[in-house]
Amino acid sequence: MFEQLGLIGCGLMGGSFALALKQAGLVKRVVGYSKSPSTTERACQMGVIDVAAPSALLAVSGADIVLMAVPVAASEATFKAIKHMVTPGMLIMDVGSTKGDVVEAAARGLRDQVGSFVPAHPIAGKELAGVDNADAELYVGKQVILTPTDLTLATHTQCATEVWSALGCKVVQMSPESHDAAFAAVSHLPHMLAFTLMNSVIGQSKGAGYMGLAGPGFRDFTRIAASDPKVWRDILQANRAELLTQCQHFRDQLALFEAAMLAGDQQTLEALITQASTARAAWRMNQLP
């Protein structure tokens, strides 16, 4: 059991982690900090945190486990803000959707204490952000990707694995580079496509009418377009190199569909659809090859 969780960012992801630790009996006390005082006040009311800290530094003071649930663009500033309270025995994790940039930010911000940091990406979330949507069950059955580096202390990586496993997660390890390449393909590009499709439809003169006719397919495809704009602005920018590579793969496939339709080539069009349909039917979430 941990004596104290220092929670930096008391929204959906951070709040859910605190509630999950409490529900599992893994922490005695949670001290939380958010930039918005109303968020920490609400977190206290909900029992997500026990004490509201006036700064990130004081949220970390006395903690033996720290979770940074902040936008990836705020990582370096947060690491620098807490550096002087970090101890070698303290486990620090994040929940960012990109890892290469966060690892670099940790090296610059934590310097000689960077071994305490275990980069983490839980594959979980909701379209509705904020502490009001925090859920102790959010992480149950979900994958958590850990991307330790050569500087990460092995004991901390093991501890992180045990924590997430105790919350009902399946823990996978990979390099930050492999993580960012994979999630550009299966998360960041799909979000960008959903944003783009919504803008494509509403940008047309008859778009409002088209939206009124949309059914379950459109609803399911565009669900993630309702995600937090600031969070996804930072993610798309942070992983832009890998994402632009995936954009080109998408363009190549789109060109094949366009060419088949222009040529009236039904056989090729059906083959392209069959390839996608077969792969999607065989796919199972959280199942690695």
Folded structure, characterized:
By secondary structure, the protein is of the alpha/beta class. The protein has 12 helices and 9 strands. Helix 2 (37-46) links the parallel strand 2 (27-33) and strand 3 (51-52). The mean pLDDT is 95.
Number of helices, where a helix is a run of at least 4 consecutive DSSP H or I residues: 12
Rg value? 21 Å
Which term fits the overall shape? elongated
Residue fraction in strands: 5-15%
The counted number of beta strands is 9
Q: Quick one: biggest sheet? A: 6 strands, parallel
Instruction: Output the helix-strand order.
Output: EHEHEHEHEHEEEHEHHHHHH
Helix content: 40-55%
Q: Which parts are unreliable, with pLDDT below 50 for 5 consecutive residues or more? A: none
What class would the helix/strand composition place it in?
alpha/beta
Rounded to the nearest angstrom, the distance between the terminal CA atoms is 34 Å
What is the spatial order of strands in the main beta sheet?
Answer: 3-2-1-4-5-6
Task: Kindly report the average pLDDT value.
Answer: 95
Task: Summarize this structure as a short list of keywords or feature phrases.
alpha/beta; three-stranded mixed beta sheet; 13% strand; elongated; 12 helices
Write the layout of secondary structure elements.
Layout: E1 2-8, H1 12-23, E2 27-33, H2 37-46, E3 51-52, H3 56-60, E4 65-68, H4 75-82, E5 91-94, H5 100-110, E6 117-118, E7 120-122, E8 143-146, H6 154-166, E9 170-173, H7 176-202, H8 207-213, H9 216-222, H10 229-238, H11 240-262, H12 266-282
Parallel strand pairs: 1-2, 1-4, 2-3, 4-5, 5-6, 8-9
Antiparallel strand pairs: 7-8
